[in-house]
Specification:
Number of helices of chain A: 10
Number of domains of chain B: 1
CATH architecture of chain B: 3-Layer(aba) Sandwich
Number of strands of chain B: 10
Distance between the termini of chain A: 47 Å
Shape of chain B: globular
Oligomer: heterodimer
Number of helices of chain B: 9
CATH superfamily of chain A: MetI-like
Strand content of chain A: under 5%
Strand content of chain B: 15-25%
Distance between the termini of chain B: 30 Å
Order of helices and strands of chain B: EEEHEEHEHHHEHEHEEHH
Structural class of chain A: mainly alpha
Order of helices and strands of chain A: HHHHHHHHHH
Strand order of the largest sheet of chain B: 6-7-8-3-9-10
Helix content of chain B: 25-40%
């Protein structure tokens, strides 16, 4: 199958030109340096946005567990946040924030496309991750809560020492998948003008009318994500095994 | 008779239209064992859950050491601190080992330093022949062992009263004995207990006071000899004769 595809592509009438514009060894060599420098920004964004999105998501999921009529507005607001930002296409959110916020000309608010782009990523991913956490929290059987309250723990302590440790374990694979996805999506910040790996590729392509840089940068992202996805798979398998051993509680 | 540790006064509890407890009054003297018997759904478990404020009562009052704990101004967590509970399904925390399961309450609720809490926990585990299991996780233990750990967890903070909710109902018959032996031991230590059970031979043996519940009402109460030896109420007689036909008495 792959061989067939290979021959179809290499035998196609446009192949000689395509090979030159997408797989040029010369341009590939030239892009590696700028792309790696750009990739540093992607990794920084992954780290900072990943950590802040996780923290924000945990807070959102926590707020949603608060019981009683007093907290109804809080629960509704967090639900609205999640629904809104999960439904909004990331690229649209990014465009609105990166071009909208500077347009407001607020004093003291940054126009830096890296920070604004990072904020958009954080908002979007916190909505996804909040759902992961919520699913995890709800998967912890109510009898665990009853047992925790019965020994005198408060609601907060019950969450912290009994519910969350179990919930987080169960959603680690899902969270890692989100992080892999975030890693790729850091490439979108280039639309605001930040020079990441994708922007570096874009600059070279625009200057040379040769698209090899995109292929090289694409492969770099793949190389980065493969180990993480493998790790997530391994973790999922290991946890499934544990859960079948663990029984109902 | 000493002042009651726990007292139910005309307690009423309904879920919607269905009345679960109707005008239940019951006094539990210190150092005594009260056994609740009756068919499933007669209200035994609900009565225990109300005492621990896991359920809110609709009418009446529950007194713990002379304090009306059903007063809405009372801090429920501070009440639960003084009550030990053991559930039918053990409800150990699966992410914590045996020792941490037991010391979570003392450390986080009662502020006992870790070393002190662990020393006390080991003492109790040792008495129950479970010292070797201190570092094991609950899923490595048999049901009987888990339930004995749950008993240790319930008594480690020296509660004023211990509520046992059908603690042998989920166990294989050969494991019931080891758990009941612990309860007998607790009785000999003079602990105040209220237990709901279907183990009639055991109930007859340990009870200072037996209450027969049917449809949310205490139909008959008295000493073990009175209720089991000479039941006055028709429904008590029928309940007991059905059990003896089934070989449970």
């Amino acid at each position: 199958m792959a061989a067939v595809l290979f021959f179809v592509v290499t035998g196609s009438p446009g192949w000689p030109v395509t090979r030159k514009t997408f797989f040029s060894a010369h341009y590939a060599g030239e892009i590696v340096g700028p792309a790696l420098r750009g990739l540093e920004l992607n990794l920084e964004l992954l780290l900072v946005c990943g950590v802040s999105a996780l923290a924000l998501a945990l807070l959102l999921a926590w707020l949603r567990t608060l019981r009683g009529p007093v907290f109804l507005p809080v629960r509704m607001l967090t639900a609205a946040y999640v629904d809104f930002f999960r439904g909004m296409p990331l690229i649209v959110l990014l465009l609105i924030i990166v071009f909208g916020v500077p347009g407001l000309q607020l004093t003291g608010v940054t126009n830096d496309p890296i920070i604004l782009g990072g904020a958009a990523l954080t908002i979007n991913y916190s909505a996804y991750m909040a759902e992961d956490f919520r699913v995890g929290i709800e998967s912890v059987h109510p009898s665990q809560r009853a047992a925790a309250r019965a020994i005198g723990l408060t609601h907060g302590q019950t969450m912290r020492f009994v519910v969350l440790p179990q919930a987080i374990r169960r959603v680690v694979p899902a969270l890692i998948n989100d992080l892999v996805s975030l890693q790729k999506d850091t490439g979108l910040v280039y639309i605001g003008g930040a020079i990441d790996a994708v922007a570096a590729a874009h600059i070279q392509a625009a200057a040379s009318f040769n698209y090899t840089s995109y292929v090289v940068v694409g492969l770099m992202f793949v190389l980065l994500t493969v180990p993480v996805t493998r790790y997530a798979d391994w973790l999922t398998r290991r946890m499934d095994r544990q859960r079948t051993q663990g029984g109902t509680v | 008779m000493t002042a009651p540790v726990l007292r139910f006064e005309s307690v009423r509890k309904a879920f919607g239209e269905q009345v679960i407890l109707d005008d239940v009054s019951l006094s539990v003297p210190e150092h005594s064992v009260t056994v609740l018997i009756g068919a499933s759904g007669s209200g035994k478990s609900t009565l225990l859950r109300c005492a621990n404020l896991l359920e809110e009562i609709d009418d009446g009052a529950i007194w713990l050491d002379g304090e009306d704990v059903t007063d809405p101004r009372v801090d429920a967590d501070s009440v639960r601190r003084r009550i030990g509970v053991v559930f039918q399904a053990y409800n150990l925390f699966p992410h914590l080992n045996v020792l941490d399961n037991i010391t979570l309450g003392p450390r986080r609720v009662h502020g006992v330093p870790r070393a002190e809490a662990e020393r006390r926990a080991m003492e109790l585990l040792d008495r129950l022949g479970l010292a070797a299991k201190a570092k094991e996780y609950p899923d490595r233990l048999s049901g009987g062992q888990q339930q004995r750990v749950a008993l240790v967890r319930a008594i480690v903070s020296e509660p004023r009263v211990l509520l046992l909710d059908e603690i042998t109902a989920a166990l294989d018959p050969e494991l019931v004995t080891e758990v009941l032996a612990v309860v007998r031991d607790l009785k000999e230590q003079g602990r105040t207990m209220v237990l709901a059970t279907h183990e009639m031979a055991f109930a007859r043996d340990v009870a200072d006071q037996v209450c027969f519940l049917a449809d949310g009402v205490i139909l008959e109460r008295g000493t073990s000899a009175q209720v089991f030896g000479d039941p006055q109420h028709e429904r008590t007689r029928r309940f007991l004769s059905r059990l003896s036909e089934a070989g449970r008495l």
